[in-house]
Amino acid sequence: MKLYDLTLTELRARLDNREVSSVDVTRAFLDRIAATDDKINAFITVCEAEALAAAKAADRRIAANEAGALTGIPIAVKDIFNTSGILTTCGSKILNNYIAPYDATVIARLKQQDAVILGKLNMDEFAMGSSNECTAFEPVHNPWNTDRVPGGSSGGSAASVAASQAIATLGTDTGGSVRQPAAHCGVVGLKPTYGRVSRYGVIAYASSLDQVGPLARNIGDCALLLQTVAGFDPADSTSVDIPVPDYSATLSEDITGLRIGLPKEYFIEGLDDDVRRAVDQAIATYRNLGAELVEVSLPHTDYAVAGYYLIATAEASSNLARYDGVRFGLRSAESDSLIDMYTRSRAEGFGIEVKRRIMLGTYALSSGYYDAYYLKAQKVRTLVRQDFTRVFEDVDVLLTPVAPTPAFPLGEKVDDPLQMYLSDIFTIPVNLAGTCAISLPCGFSDGGLPIGLQLIGKPFDEATILKTGYAFEQATEWHKKKAAL
Ligand code: GLN
Question: Could you tell me the distance, in angstroms and rounded to a whole number, from the CA of residue 206 to the centre of ligand 1?
Answer without folding.
Answer: 9
